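At this stage, I put together one protein's amino acid sequence and its backbone structure tokens, which the following lines show:
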Amino acid sequence: MTLATNARIGKYLAGEDGKTLYTFKNDSANTSKCTAGCAQAWPPFTLDDGEKVKAGAGVTGKLTTFARADGTMQVAYNGAPLYYFASDSKAGDIMGQGISNVWFAAKP
């Protein structure tokens, strides 16, 4: 996990391949409310068995994982579950920012 910067939103967290990570306002600490169709549009940032998440330079919050209902391990930042947005195709895309006023790029 690394930090990225966008002129419009400032610094935000990026995951694999530099893609933007998002938080969902309706989640609670270490609990995802985004399942089924929601999780197709907003794929959770999960880890494979034995994989560990590592904070890059400037990422100072607490990284944790928790089990989703399907058994996968989702990454959380300061308790906020993290997601990608399916419509972001490359590093630097922030197409999910502000959608429905509940999805926001994860801030460090």
